[in-house]
């Protein structure tokens, strides 16, 4: 059965292009992928990401539980702050990449990819008898929006009851937005500044509060270039920022070390998959994630072979034409020997070979775009 999120009827009424994604019917775009992408890079956009999963861990062993089942160190979290992390299987493969928040007084909230919510919930439950914890799936009673772009702060601040200016990246707080209590964090998956907003305790069959807040945010940003955005531009934005997508660039056969996510692996603590990752680190990686640009015009896609002098050396995992630069860009995996910036390889697309060059990410000028851009 395909699920319909809180704002489904609102999106249909707005004539959004609706598609099935991870068991949910969600908007792919409202106007166009390119237009929405550029709105986020240049101004501000809002995404309905209510299909994402939220799992709450409470109890005396909540921290010990989270730290054992994730690679990052949740003991470093201050009140309402979050961290990016991975959940690994015993072989070190990535079961999901997640956000973990410490909600003081409520426990730890794990935000999963929509396709993995049931899998991670079952994985957590398989360890539950070893710890004094309670596990609750909040997904169907939580609406989630992402407001992203260089004017996201200006937009959200205009309807917030508290000062958001000093909120650091991955910092969060409970606040009122347009009179509604929400949990808000300064996070996102676009490369831009922005916020992810959680409206708690709102059932899908009683979505009025979620609809009201969505409309309030749209109204707050209407003079700032605000666009409602779908999953299409969310994908091109994250790729342009060099961020991996679960099911494409990462999965259970890929480790955080191979995916260049080693910054979320804290070897000083114990966690599921640690021994396998230590062994891999000692023996050396057989493959690593790279970013690349095509040197001519063609569109790389998942599954395209990566070649060196006609010999297969890797595979494309994500690809598109950047709406910002209009250049074809992508990610893939190759042996470390071929991963240095500037290395030239080839990608086979529809039977034809196209030259590519390994480049660093993000795929844009960080002085002009992204949350670290220089402002005058």
Biggest pleated-sheet summary: 6 strands, mixed
Sheet with most strands: strand arrangement: 11-12-13-10-4-14
Shape: globular
CATH architecture of the domain at 3-49 and 140-239: 2-Layer Sandwich
Mean pLDDT metric: 97
Beta content: 25-35%
CATH class of the domain at 3-49 and 140-239: Alpha Beta
What separation lies between the terminal Cα atoms? 50 Å
What is the CATH topology assignment of the domain at 3-49 and 140-239?
Answer: Gyrase A, domain 2
Unreliable stretches (pLDDT < 50, length at least 5) are none
Structural class: alpha+beta
Kindly state the number of beta strands. 20
Can you give a write-up of this model?
This protein has eight helices and 20 strands. It is of the alpha+beta class and 376 residues long. Among the domains are: 3-49 and 140-239, Gyrase A, domain 2 (2-Layer Sandwich), CATH 3.30.1360; 286-376, Aminomethyltransferase beta-barrel domains (Elongation Factor Tu (Ef-tu), domain 3, Beta Barrel). The chain has a six-stranded mixed beta sheet. The model has no long low-confidence stretch (mean pLDDT 97).
């Amino acid at each position: 059965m395909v699920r319909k999120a809180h704002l489904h009827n609102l999106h249909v009424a707005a004539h959004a292009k609706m598609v099935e994604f991870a068991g949910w019917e969600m908007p792919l775009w409202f106007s166009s992928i390119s237009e929405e992408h550029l709105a986020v890079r240049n101004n501000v956009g809002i995404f309905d990401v209510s299909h994402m999963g939220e799992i709450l861990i409470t109890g005396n062993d909540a921290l010990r539980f989270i730290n054992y089942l994730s690679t990052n160190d949740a003991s470093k979290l201050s009140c309402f702050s979050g961290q990016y992390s991975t959940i690994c299987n015993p072989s070190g493969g990535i079961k999901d990449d997640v956000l973990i928040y410490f909600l003081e007084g409520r426990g730890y909230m794990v935000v999963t990819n929509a396709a993995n919510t049931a899998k991670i919930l079952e994985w957590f439950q398989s360890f539950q008898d070893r710890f004094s914890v309670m596990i609750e799936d909040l997904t169907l009673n939580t609406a989630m929006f992402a407001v992203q772009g260089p004017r996201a702060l200006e937009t959200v601040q205009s309807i917030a009851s508290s000062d958001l200016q000093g909120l650091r990246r991955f910092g969060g707080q409970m606040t009122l937005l347009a009179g509604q209590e929400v949990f808000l964090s300064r996070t996102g998956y676009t490369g831009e500044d922005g916020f992810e907003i959680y409206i708690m305790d709102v059932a899908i069959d009683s979505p009025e509060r979620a609809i009201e807040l969505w409309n309030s945010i749209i109204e707050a940003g209407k003079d700032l270039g605000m666009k409602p955005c779908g999953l299409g531009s969310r994908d091109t934005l994250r790729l342009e920022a060099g961020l991996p997508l679960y099911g494409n660039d990462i999965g259970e056969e890929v480790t955080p070390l191979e995916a260049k996510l080693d910054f979320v692996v804290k070897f000083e603590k114990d966690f599921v998959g640690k021994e396998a990752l230590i062994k891999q680190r000692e023996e050396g990686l057989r493959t690593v994630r790279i970013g690349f640009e095509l040197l001519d015009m063609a569109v790389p896609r998942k599954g395209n072979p990566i070649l060196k002098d006609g010999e297969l050396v890797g595979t494309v995992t994500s690809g598109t034409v950047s709406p910002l630069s209009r250049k074809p860009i992508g990610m893939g995996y190759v042996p470390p020997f071929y991963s240095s910036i500037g290395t030239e390889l080839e990608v086979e697309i529809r039977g034809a070979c196209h030259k590519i060059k390994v480049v660093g990410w993000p795929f844009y000028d960080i002085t002009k775009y992204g949350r670290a851009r220089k402002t005058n």
